Amino acid sequence: MAPPDIRIFNTMQQTKVPLVPLNPGKLGIYVCGPTVYSWVHIGNARTFTSFDTIVRYLRFRGFEVRYVRNYTDVDDKIIKAANEAKEDPIALAAHFIREFEADTKALHLLPPDVSPKVSDTIPEIVAIIEKLIARGAAYAAGGDVYFEVRKYPGYLKLSKKNLDDLVSGAGERELVLDSKKDPMDFALWKAAKPGEPSWDSPWGKGRPGWHIECSAMSAKYLGETFDLHGGGLDLIFPHHENEIAQSEAASGKTLCNCWMHGGFLDLEGAKMSKSLGNVVRLRDALQQVDAEALRFFFLTTHYRQALSFSDKQLADAETRMEYFYETLRKVDERVEGKDFGQGALHGDPERFLRELDEAMADDFNFPGALGALSGLFNELNQLTDKPPVKDKAMVGRTLLALRDIAKKASLALGLFEDKPSDWLLRRRDRQVARLGIDVAKVDAGIAARQEARVAKNFQEADRIRAELKAMRVEIMDTPAGTSWKVLSELPTT
Length: 493
Fold this sequence. Notes:
This protein is of the alpha/beta class. The chain has 3 domains: about 5-285, 3-Layer(aba) Sandwich (Rossmann fold); about 310-420, Up-down Bundle (Four Helix Bundle (Hemerythrin (Met), subunit A)), CATH 1.20.120; about 420-485, no CATH class. The protein is about 45% helix and about 15% strand. The protein has helices spanning about 40-60, 75-85, 90-105, 120-135, 165-170, 210-220, 235-250, 280-290, 290-300, 310-335, 350-360, 365-385, 390-415, 420-435, 440-455, 460-470, and strands spanning about 5-10, 15-20, 25-30, 65-70, 140, 145, 185-190, 205-210, 225-230, 255-260, 265, 270, 305-310, 475-480, 480-485. A hairpin with a 2-residue loop joins strand 11 (about 265) and strand 12 (about 270). The longest helix has 25 residues, at about 310-335. The radius of gyration is 27 Å and the shape is elongated.
């Protein structure tokens, strides 16, 4: 059976469109990366996890993907933060790039093929600005350079806004023209100011505006036209709108074939925003919840929809991941190192992979893919605990086939990359620390229970089990011996 055609919601057209690569079998993807003046918050982490999953799936489908995600290391916010910290802005940005990479690695984010920085792309930025001036789409004024929006007829075609409405709706501060011809013209180059990083240019020392950087970096590493451009919903206007205007005015070509935008993350119903102050840093969240459980949580809602962040939902995600890893542990104990021979399988294990593929091919439907995953794990549990057939060899072969499908699904979604026993132990350690469980007392209780069982004093063994359960400890007797886990806990507040 042929794999399903991939369709993607294109923000430009406001509808789903077929994925048709510019070059057969290959895809160029550019995602606007972080402005590195502080630690990454979970709202940004959700966006980057969404596009990481999209890239993983496209590679799973056999595409050769060139994935570019930039770092904005020259920006007003960085300069402000560096001045407050009495640090060099470029050095401050470099520090937070390292912090970003350390934090997002825990979420199983694959490193992009290219991670360019603004500070390394100045010659390309200057070249595009020179071209825009030569074509009459930009003008220099007092060391600054502005893009003249009314010279580009397609301006606002992405956001569907009206230029005159924007001007009339702007506040008095926004209408200060300075040296602009029009209040909506935007900066391509900013003249140097004391205490700011600057570079030489034909217009004097200065630094790039925010929007021009992505035009230069995407063109440098993907060409003047590429396949997919992604980012958060908040970037549609003005950032992506301005990218389109300056790139297409400079090249005369369409910037990209498809625009993709990820939804917001709400903190208990309030949009996460640094300006509102209701921001949770990723590293702080990872102190409270397993990184893979957080990734799973991000995938529980379609990438274009808003996702509400709460302690309860994180606790639910971690409980769900525990179920998945506990299932994998049981299956591995059953099948590892065993030969079940050749022969028929029970049912149709491949259907779960087809269901995942169908969901992801439909505009990267993450919840649909997780639904297929749930069906897969239900089947694994049934075959492990209460197999519907008596042929043990058939059951073993089917478990192996399903386990292989789980591995393929993990490649597409970035989940289950840990050894089950390691993940479960870390989960238990976090719960023990959170609940203050006395591990020495648990171990002593398990040892005493084992002695009671050997002595056939089952009443005493049951009493000890109940005593441990009152401590929120569940005993599990397996072929590999007795182990224990912490019973599901109430979410923290």
